[in-house]
Fold this protein.
Amino acid sequence: KNEVEQSPQNLTAQEGEFITINCSYSVGISALHWLQQHPGGGIVSLFMLSSGKKKHGRLIATINIQEKHSSLHITASHPRDSAVYICAVKRGGSQGNLIFGKGTKLSVKP
Amino acid sequence: EAGVTQFPSHSVIEKGQTVTLRCDPISGHDNLYWYRRVMGKEIKFLLHFVKESKQDESGMPNNRFLAERTGGTYSTLKVQPAELEDSGVYFCASSLAPQETQYFGPGTRLLVL
């Protein structure tokens, strides 16, 4: 079993819907990242968090350290949000390398 | 400011050949990481440079892979000889410090036939 599990693997939504992507991990971490990868494109870091909640525009990321769980929320989803969203954790005490989930492929229909 | 760049964007080679991938990190970023995604799997860590030194190379799959970062600027990842299972997307990332945000390059898509 992978140390970082994401759900769902695939998600199709209608424009305007509220979207939640979940990430669970099984190791002690110093930080958790949410990344976005557009088709044919590179990877963009959306959030890095170690506690609580962060918000950027229509995106909100939360983390519960005790439960080893994080969620990424997208409010008022738009077709341009269609991408693969990847959860990655930095193991506690490590020098920086990340452990990745398999990603959630989001498709937002107009 | 330029982001992380990688060259080439695509490479198609035959089994047994050699391929060298290049990564140029963001200027001033001492930390440089190589990652790889093979088809259907999650992205996996290969190694981490701090300046020109290999800080962690625990993810390197075998001795067919050689990474260098002479001078602490750009890095190369050479695969020699390439095998079919080396096909995938190779990402490079850089950061100011290990605990800081990593900025990813666009990746090099390698196909070994």
Remarks:
- The mean pLDDT of chain A is 93.
- The first strand of chain A starts at residue 4 and ends at 7.
- Chain A is about 0% helix and 60% strand.
